[in-house]
Amino acid sequence: MKLYRIPIVLGLLFPLLISSCDDLLDPKAETKLTEEFANISYSNTLSRSVGLYSYLPDGLSYLDGAMMASASDEAEFTLETASIHNFNVGSWNANSNPDESAWERNFEGIYATNLFLKESDDVDLDYLKYDPAKQQDYQNRLNNIHRWKYEARFLRAYYYFELVKRYGGVPIITEPLSLESDLSAYSRDSLAACIRFIVNECDSAATVLQAPDRMTDVANNLGRASKGAALGLKCRVLLYAASDLFNKPDEWAPGYEHKELISMQDGKTQQQRWEEAAAACNDFITSLGNKYPLDEYRLIRNYQNSEIIFDRRYGSTNTYEKTNYPVGYDLGESGNTPSQNLVDAYEMIDGTPFDWNNPEHRANPYANRDPRLAMSILTNNVEFKDRTVEAWTGGRDGKGVIHASRTGYYLYKFIDPNLDLLQNRTSVHHWVIMRYAEILLSYAEAMNEAYGPTGNVGYRLNAVRALNQVRNRVGIEMPAVPSTLTQEELRERIRNERRVELAFEDHRFWDVRRWMIAPETLGAPLRGVEITKISDEEFEYKPVEIEKRTFEPKMYLYPIPQADLNTTGWPQNPLW
């Protein structure tokens, strides 16, 4: 893979180079030229620091409108020709991967940050440095450049983890490469080395970056990396490093000769890794938890939601609504349609499981459910915009209509229901990359694995209490999980809580892999619901299988692109 330098726009400098010789010899012109050059140099550095964020994932329409949820048991993408279906039927390999752009995009992001880190030290601030009247401006600019460099280091760590969770160990490159360079001069570093590098970068970034007050410093900091983002990424990385996939290679790739590339071969036990993950999450909770209080779940699409730690902003658009509005609404394309597999995971309001064999549940399957169901998924006969959703067979949004949902459900999470698409109305959107509920759930998981449901080794929260903080938030208020559960029972409750709380936020695809339960989740048939209208207020609901899906052990990690193997000689990932 060739890595191409992002060109620096030189057009801004060109006017400075065409001044007349007489002008350039004029002392006043020389002073003006120096000042303009300094300002342009600084402004260009600012622009380039912002550009480093452009490699963040576009989670709302990751693969041509499809979310990664539609490559998991959360959803089905309606457009049958979309490449994301290849994940579900097992039709992907080293030459053809629906998510193949992740390899180049993240390496390009790493290269851009490396180049920025090298060249940001060369910003010309001498005009300010030697002017006694501009010392404050000089110091402010120095501070800004220093902060941007640590934002870049965080972003580089983030891009590296995006690679590691897909491919395992990859080359750690910290210097910018030339235009002609490729990766053949580098080897894949071990998974443990990659994890260590990412964690160290997060620690370094956290010492410089601040935790901004999102409500009072929105203009300057919203969307930028912060101390919270750095420590939050550390929590996520250590959670993955402690999970089964990166600790039990013999259970899925017993004959692989390069286990250091796919598992943590660092001399520590899995128990120690769970303890490290718990400690990292505890550090976040105790030092920053008050900065990101849990907000109302229904407000998650609001980019000023208090619990959001890191996100990607889009500006004003309606693409997400066009893709995902129900098919019977103006310009709606159905898009990512939630599965019955996911809907069944939402508990009853009393905390008991939903059960199709219970006549009361079956007769009215969406009544008295966890409030997050209605806040995430449009079900039949629910009010949406100017009418009710008609997901029943023969309805305006039901089977029989071209491009209608095959599952019987439509997506509501992150949707703005107030847009008039015919008038091309738009609203501000953002993709939530990290929020405080994830930290609490990661803490609950790590604590339960390390110390059991109620152990806390001096920490303020145990696993059960952390889990219940998420369940008891304002507007949700689900019953508390009891502290009498066994470790195995609590493990299942935590996993289900992640499933419903973080639905459609690009966690499920990776969670079932790191837990090594993908064969029974991603490999199980995808289910929907068949709805028959009896009367205006009475419907009959029947769960049905809509698609057989495939998962093989080799799919726990992506294959390294074949074109790069051909030029580097690297070992391929197991079983590909």
Automatic annotation (TrEMBL):
Main location: membrane
Cross-referenced InterPro entries: SusD-like_N, SusD_RagB_dom, TPR-like_helical_dom_sf
Coiled coil stretches, renumbered: none
Domain RagB/SusD as annotated: residue spans: 307-576
Single GO cellular component term: cell outer membrane
Alphabetical UniProt keywords: Cell outer membrane, Membrane, Signal
Domain of life of the source: Bacteria
Family matches, as Pfam families: SusD-like_3, SusD_RagB
Keyword Magnesium: no
Domain SusD-like N-terminal: 76-239
Compartment annotation: Cell outer membrane
Family, per entry: Belongs to the SusD family.
Protein name listed in UniProt: Carbohydrate-binding protein SusD
Organism of this sequence: Barnesiella viscericola DSM 18177
Phylogenetic placement of the source organism: Bacteria, Pseudomonadati, Bacteroidota, Bacteroidia, Bacteroidales
